Amino acid sequence: MAISLKVNGSDRTVDVDPETPLLYVLSDELQLRGPKFGCGLAQCGACTVIIQGRAVRSCVMPVGAVREREVTTLEGVGTPEKPHAIQQAFIDEGAAQCGFCLSGVILTAKALLDENPKASDAQIRQALSNVLCRCFTHTRMIRAIKRYRESRA
Amino acid sequence: MRKELSRRDFLRASGALVVSFSAASFVEPSAAAQGPFDTHASHVDPLKLDSWLAVASDGTVTAYTGKCDLGQGMYTVQTQLVAEELCVAFDRVKLIQCDTSITPDQGTTSGSQSTPTNFNARNLAQAAATAREALIAMAAEQLGVPMDQLTPADGAISAKGGAHISYGDLIGGKQFNLPVDPAAKRRSPNEWTVLGKPIPSTDRVALMTGTFEFVHNVHVPGMVHGRVVRPPQIGATVAHVDESSVQHITGVIKVVVRKNFVGVVAEKQWQAAKAATALKVTWNPGDGLPAQDGFYDDYIRKQPSSDFLLVDSKDVDATLKSASHVLKATYLYPYQAHGSIGSSCAVADVQADRATIWSPTQSVYPTQHGISALTGLPLESVRVIFVRGSGCYGLNAADTVSYDAALLSQAVQKPVRVQLTRQDEFLSENYGSACAIEEKAGLDASGAIAAWDCTSWSVSLGGRPGYERPGNVITGMLAGFDPETVAPRAAVEPRGELRNGSNAVPSYLAGCVGGECGGGGSIRSERVLMRSVASPLFTGPLRSPLRLQNTFAHECFMDEISAHVKADPVAYRLRHLSDPRIIAVVKAAAQKANWVARPSPERSRARAGVLTGRGIACVAYEGENGYAAAVAEVDVDRATGRVQPTRFVVALDCGPISNPDGLRNQIEGGILQGTSRALGEEITWNDRQVTSIDWRSYHTLPLGIELPIVESVLIDRPDARATGAGETAITLAAAAIGNAIFDATGARIRQAPFTLQRVKAALAAKA
Fold first, then answer.
1. Which of B71, B211, B340 sits opposite A33 (nearest CB)?
2. Per the CB < 8 Å rule, is B707 touching A139?
3. Could you give the ipTM of this predicted complex?
4. What is the pTM of this model?
5. For residues A68 and B157, what is the distance between their CA atoms, to the nearest angstrom?
6. Which domains does chain B have, with CATH numbers?
7. Count of C-beta atoms within a 10 Å radius of residue B137
8. For the sheet containing B53-55, what is the strand order?
């Protein structure tokens, strides 16, 4: 069935089963590259998008449940020409190896710090307690997140 | 949207006027054989300069490499190499990686071999140096100036008097038609302006902004979606597949069965996923698995083995007999997963007469052979194009998913994208080998080690498919190809030179074979035996394969010996080392860590039930492929058994440093990945199947942990051979942490991972 979505500021219509995970619609129908299939079980974070300010795991969210809410993916946050401040912090820290996990890391941290700009280190750890990076670029990523936090203080 | 580009297209896109390439492109295979570059692997001759480099008329450079960027930074650092040797700006070089139609066959991007292969005096580095010299010779002729008065810089050659000609004007769009000159002079590290600098990795902006193309993002026209249905038990075979069970699912195109390989293809990914879940397959049960409890004693060490004697001074039994004291210990290491964060994905377009595979494999050329065997297509009609997947750390399911995609695409004659599920990924892997390593050392009256005897048991089934063994990964095996198995054989006398590629020989041994001593140490009464036995689970290289397991055992055992003689672990190591490069990294790490010389353990610093300790470990990776030492500092909570590393100091020597920022990134990631493997990662199974199949049952350290500080000491050796650096730090983590736990608590834990239960049990046994 035809489903209307608002993704990264654009209105999109897709013809899919409403039970289809949002991730499949974003990556297959809309050919977006930010959210990725990591586990399909909401355990790793690679598919994260932002919906109404919250970091949401798109691999387990049926597209039919999104309705009118705006969906923002990693490429909707900033562009290569004009990266968002948190993306710039990750660029400056060189906080990636393979980079597959970045939607989970950047968007989870962004959602936290947008809601609570003064989030403590412990709150950052708590927010990232179910976010994985298997290259273990942890040190640089946490540094980048703190750099972003400090840049807004 | 992807379309196939030939080597010629790349040159055209870069502005080159290509006059001498074949008119045939890959999509016209009948005419293709004439082309020097376009289609056949053997036509990309690594001895020819044009196989590696092309200069376009605008002076931009396209370089071709068979070593790809898996996230370890090889794209950036190889671009630096070409820019440096050719004296062109970094951003004027474009790299084409791993495509069987257009890049030289460099085997597999693995084993810390990309830097040794392409940065020393051969292959890519030598090609770029050859090109620079050739351009200088051409400029000398054109400008009428002697070569020794010409200087290459920034893509042009200048004479002292001011005459000047660009590379584009000299060769743009034309071929060199020269062999790679083994005598071409490399630029000295003293002259480097691009190589050796911390240039940010080129993929950074695209990654952070979500625009980088992974293999998961490849779309080709007409592409449909496949999923696989793996056997529910190891060794199960297909009895019956009920195709009617998925007929009600919209979009299903085909159920594909090829011997024991089962998959489904549908128009959309969600339809394929639903069909894979719904498909009713009746399986004949497998033979079952040996019990995990007791696996090391009751299974591994009771199997017939293939034995390989690495060193044997023949006097070990006698020396042990006359020793003033003999220490013995056995170290155990589990199967572990690569556990890539992205479950593997590939896209295949297999038609009646040709195939193209977009694959995250480390091995495009071997995969080309495997796909040829699976599809029955001639080798030259199969093209494998590397597109980066998520970090693999070795043989994850990248190869097998490429086979999956090829089989499904061939069955439906359409391009098929296959996405493995998380469970598929865990069940499709070639796990890192479980090991049992028996150590024995005899001490002399002075407390020095007089003899060292090691038997290192590992398990093996399958592995990298290489050019001939598609059955070495699960899809090839399911489709009817046999995996490589262990053929029991007795050890023969060591010959030739010391072969320490698996670090089975501890650094402290003299390593004497045939009169030549290739080891890193001074112990001359020495015996090292590797024993490989059949594995019930598929195995394959996982970052620092066997090197990590062996180093865990050797370096912890060395600590046990130092503790026994009440010596400082650093001083005691130095007492038995002779290789100046290992000695240098041990000293550098100890110094940076403010190491205080004293024996372990030290039990005086208990605070609120938390004990602190420090431990050291070192390795000459594969004997000579990089040197590193790590100091770990840990807190151990006596009540919970929780081990919290607080600081690592890693000193590393990989010869001349190509990119210090990339190197630090590898060290930081390596030591933390090693920590995760040391503290929590373990494949589990029941009597039928692997049970660690997701991130709840396979325990990795998430981002939200209390992070240890990681400090790197980089030892630059401009005059040495360039070695690998991606696997050295990880090799040391388990040993350094294990030694730090002992220092903190006096409890020695000889089985990885150091789970809460194992730590608590060790503490209880100590008390």
1. B211
2. yes
3. 0.99
4. 0.95
5. 61
6. 7-208 (3.30.365.10), 215-286+338-428 (3.30.365.10), 435-766 (3.30.365.10)
7. 15
8. B53-55, B61-65, B93-97
